[in-house]
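User: Can you predict the 3D structure of DUF429 domain-containing protein? Sequence below.
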Amino acid sequence: MLTVGVDLAAEAVRTAVAWLDWRDGRARLVRAETVADDALVVEAVTAAVKAGIDCPLGWPDRFVDFVTAHRAGHVRVPEGLAGRDWRRDLALRVTDQVVRERTGLTPLSVSADRIGHATMRCAALLAELARRGSPVDRGGDGAVVEVYPAACLKLWGLPFRGYKRAANLAELDRLVDRLLAEAPWLDLGPYERLCRASDDATDAVVSALAARASALGLVTVPDARQAGPAATEGWIALPTTPLGRLAG
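Assistant: Sure. Here are the predicted structure tokens for DUF429 domain-containing protein:
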């Protein structure tokens, strides 16, 4: 089984892709790229059994309705709500709120933060996949699933904060050490040095691990009430078992 992880940024720079080959109870990192353009991302996703993309796959439904209403005239503020309370559903998707309840981590707001730029790029990538005959189910069924590396790391008992950017290479090094200790079946091969130098590459590897969890059915899925929003907003698949279960 080949799983792919994509740490998607708004541009090719800072976009990383990792390819994990799973066989005989082991996972081997067979390729890793840290400057990935659209063509490379599409090529990687279409080659994988499952691809985990670290980027929102959609915007909050209520935000879309809000913008549409504002363009047509005036928005209506719900009675009894003000300030942050009524803006919460505009800023956070259903899945973002579920992640916060389960992990204590709040994903970046796709409608109120810079992650929106990456999501615009993601929307174009999803359109290209559909054009090639591989439409994406934003709820996680099919070949693509939305993932959140920080939440995965926290749920697996690994360091999940403080390893980003060049100033924190010591923490990134510590994270890679812990990851390899907890997953002795994971072989980073010649790309280990890259993972220790680039948090984007490491996040792509974690995204590929999360894709494996999704392929095995070891992640959260939307319930009946959440299925509707997940189909349009996207759904972050959180691992439901320890990291060791992924080796199979």
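The chain has ten helices and six strands. The first helix runs from residue 38 to 47.
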